Amino acid sequence: MMLVFCLWLLCLSGSSALEQDGEGHIVLQLGGFFPMEGGWPVGVYVQPMVELALKHVNENSTLLPNYKLSMTWNNTKCTAGDAITAANWQFSTIPELVGVIGEGCSVASEPIALLGGVYHMPQISYGSTSPVLSNEVLYPYFLRVCGSDVNQGLAWLAAAKHHKWQRVGTINSQESLHSMLTEKFLIGAQKEGISVIASESFPGSQNHDVSLLLANMAKKGVTIIFMACYSDDAARIFEEAKKIDVLSGPEVVFIGTDAWVIPSFWELSKGNALGSVGFSPAPGDSAFRKEIFDEYHALTGLDIEAAGLAYADAGYDAVLTFALGLHQILEVEEYPLTDIVSFRDHLYSYMLENTFFEGMTKGVTTFDSYGDKTTPYGMYNFQESGFVMTAEWDPLTDGKVFS
After folding, report:
1. How far, in Å, CA of 353 to CA of 27, rounded?
2. What gap in Å lies between CA 88 and CA 111, rounded to an integer?
């Protein structure tokens, strides 16, 4: 109780003098959290895009003309421990923070958002999809420009119905986001008359033996397997399946999640994932996106068609969301920055209720009452040539269209 009280005293204290750049612009500080390694190292792709977005905002003379955005970021490694350490450091040592971007992994975003509630800290994630984060009581300052895994579970169900799969199995790690995604699919499968003949889970640890669950799947004759876990766990399961020679033939299809559909998984899985399928937010298709990605490619060498870069899109739109919100309340409303807590409250409320723009991500970026953006999903097949998007599913069609 004393610790919480001290935190409240700290966050409610007055803001420090705001920094100015050499041209007299007031510098607005953002925090950033990116997993550059670990279970889902999507930060490798997102962090350069966020920096590019900040550059574009700062070069735009009509957007925040009297201000510049700056970001202090940490490699939070897709772990709760690294995330809470970084968030505590940023929140306590940079009192003028107006908001934060990240994390990618839900297991890391959750503790950041919990601590952020104490500091009234607006947070926009580009990749955390756990349904838990839709809880506005636990996470009152959390937004995301990606969809909830509730919709990803429905995308699984749409794929099963489209391909007329009647006998399937599921494997999931026991992290809440993966278990909740699987549960959503299982409920839908029961309603649709799809038989789940085997359902296995594991702790999500590199030291956990997965051979028994694979053997059980094979024993029950499962050939269509929906699997929810981070990319490192998925790679280990594919490797073990090949090693013990079960569930590794061309007749077996694994259907995974967005955690798989990043370029690094191709190398991590050592080719063992060929023929499997993953879902990821469908890439944007605007001319604006093509122009941005030409510049992004020149900076990073990453191709616009590389799967997983939809989360780089989301990183760009997270910056735009902050920039548009800050422009409204600072340049239009001239809301004072003297009380940083009141300022953060107003900024969060404005972004939640008024954000509406077309940016890098597919469709309009806007938020429902839970702070979630509704996101169409692409279905990617892992082929020799790399990731190929073979279908798209849009939750706004209520699951009726899988093209």
Report:
1. 25
2. 10
Residue 117 tokens read as 């509630």
Assess contact for 176 and 220: CB atoms under 8 A: no
d(Cα 226, Cα 208) in Å, to the nearest integer? 19
- Kind and range of the H or E element at 188? helix 176-192
Residues 6+ apart with CB under 8 A from 339: 14, 15
Q: Strand, helix or coil at 358?
A: strand
Among 350, 317, 354, residue whose Cα is nearest residue 98: 350
Q: Which residue reads 């807590």 in tokens?
A: 341
Element (H, E) at 227: strand 224-228
Give residue-wise pLDDT tens across range 52-90.
Answer: 999 999 999 999 999 999 999 999 999 999 999 999 999
Distance of CA 231 to the CA centre of its chain: 14
Burial string for 117-138 (b: 16+ CB within 10 Å, else e) reads bebbbbbbbbbbbbbbbbeeee
For residue 66, is it left (φ>0), alpha (ψ between -120 and 50) or beta? Answer: alpha
pLDDT tens digits for range 325-372: 999 999 999 999 999 999 999 999 999 999 999 999 988 999 999 999
